[in-house]
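To: structure desk
From: M.T.
Subject: fold request, one chain
Message: Could you run this one when you get a chance? Sequence is below, nothing fancy, just the single chain.
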Amino acid sequence: MNEEFKIIKRMLENKKVKSFVISNLKTSLKGIGYSKELIQDLIKEFEKYDFTGFQLRNSKELHKVNSIGFFQKIVPIYFENQVIPYVPSSKKVVDIGCGTGILAHKLAQSKRFDQIIGIDIDSYPEWDKFKERSVSFKIVKEKEFREFLKETKPETIIFTWALHHMDFKEQERYLGEIHSILDKVTIVVLEDSFSVKMRPQEDIGVYDSFNKLNLDEKNNVMSILDWTANRVLERRDKIPLPFTYRTLEDWQKLFEEIGFKLIKKRYIGFPKNRDVNTPQSIIVVSKV
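Reply: Done. Structure tokens follow.
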């Protein structure tokens, strides 16, 4: 059993955390099209912890509902509604932690950008499927990031569900390098994050139960759900999961300490059609 899995098991020892996770997986997975049988099978594994067996038994449905249905059909609509409206028109935009490239594809369809570059620390087979002339993809490790910024000089940078896959110091390094290297830039961030001051703008009936948890319990819920989404449902073994979450207010504080100016913040909350019910927030900052 690896250390990451041990951490998840310890988090699930808290009865309130486990109850929230299981209740919300039942709701969210049903909402995106999973069968009652698969959901029941998954919930049983939170007692036996045989998630490899679960994946083998349900590989076809996982591919159909998660890899195709969720990421290729639901996520693009989510990006259109929740992210792209906040991205200013610009000549060059970089999508950091671009994953399969879905967001880059949707940005190209908007016809508001001359060049869209998606970068990640590993390549994805889906990159070869997108043929837009304005879109390119590139592997960029952290040690190569400074030179990449100097060469490309993007006007806009987007992070969608990427920053919580970095540890806290790495988050600070990436954002600090963006501020120190680029003279002018807008950053748009979509994160698994909740507000301690604002009520959510969207809620599928999850907020009140989530808000009863303390800060550590909330972070543990988000960690378990993110682990379930990446390791179990999507079967991503390489993507880092350091479980490093910040509140919306903490993100604002970090950006302002680095020297960015807040443009917009929004506690989306708990919208419909999510694979797991983690709280969602948008923050937009700029350096001018």
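Reply (cont.): Strands lie at 90-96, 113-120, 135-139, 156-160, 185-192, 202-203, 261-270, 280-287. Let me know if you need anything else for the meeting.
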